[in-house]
Amino acid sequence: AAKSAGKNGVRVFSPEMEDGVNTRHQVQTRLRQALRGGEITLCFQPKVCAATRKPIGCEALARWRTPEGKLIPPSEFVPIAEQTGLIVPFGELVFRTAAEQARDWAACGREPSVAVNVSPHQLRHPGFVSSLQDVLAETSARAEWFELEITECAMMEDVDHAVEVIDSLAALGFNVAVDDFGTGYSSLSYLKHFRLHTLKIDLTFIRDVTTDWQSQAVVRSVVSLGAGLGLNVVAEGVETAEQAELLSEIGCTTLQGYYFGKPMTADDYVDWLDAQARTSV
Ligand code: C2E
Ligand code: MG
Ligand code: MG
Ligand code: MG
């Protein structure tokens, strides 16, 4: 089972392996090597303004490329990293890589806007905010270039703590987004306590927004909630022109999905930006 084919090639870990102490230990060891050995890279997926369809930034998504050339998607290692605490050094590496990339884009005159995912464990970790500050200082990146995506579940786990951390992040200049919005046991009354910039509607609602009136009702509610609270509302997982059109009409401010661009290497992302600039004139 450990070698059954996964979506993006050969699986190195099967879900069953997570149960065994030894195998979890092996995965931990491999992931630790991967962190040190430069096997973790970032892909960048474009986001566009719903009204103009112009690029407005990207989301950084982690990929693990093993020395054998296998590409392991985050669904196969982020949960293990989360359980073992390796997500803390992993998250730091991701932010450092994103910060270096953003700084390089800024140096070429491209105003960076990069969303970076933050896991529940990272949010709970006492050194989280100061580690971000350290990376900013070391890379000369600016907090304003980043939007930190925190899942609704992570925020609701310990609301008081999350409010405190998000306040500190906002004070430093970071934007904060609620990721996968609509999937958690969302207590809407808590939202006003968080210093947020963005709600990101989970892609499960986007997938059938044109065909399922219930998903569409959820999307409309989130859009009106976001508008009422003065937040950007991002639709993620947009795959078709019909979805894009409907979501713009409903009032999403930002669109992201394969229809506009898949997660790509930094070089491909810059090429994509240039191609967009050429076609819009
Ligand atoms: P997410 O943050 O909600 O990211 C959105 C996921 O949807 C990404 O999957 C993206 O590639 C995928 N996606 C984007 N557009 C479409 C589309 O049009 N159709 C479909 N079917 N999928 C689309 P990915 O890259 O596999 O990442 C999965 C999850 O892994 C992320 O969900 C996030 O929770 C986690 N993740 C990825 N990178 C990191 C990271 O650096 N740190 C942490 N903590 N988590 C990460
Ligand atoms: Mg995200
Ligand atoms: Mg999401
Ligand atoms: Mg997700």
UniProtKB/TrEMBL annotation:
Domain EAL: 24-277
Source superkingdom: Bacteria
Protein name stated in the entry: Cyclic di-GMP phosphodiesterase Gmr
The organism of origin for this protein: Posidoniimonas polymericola
Gene that this sequence comes from: gmr_1
Boundaries of the shown chain within the full protein: 645 to 925 of 925
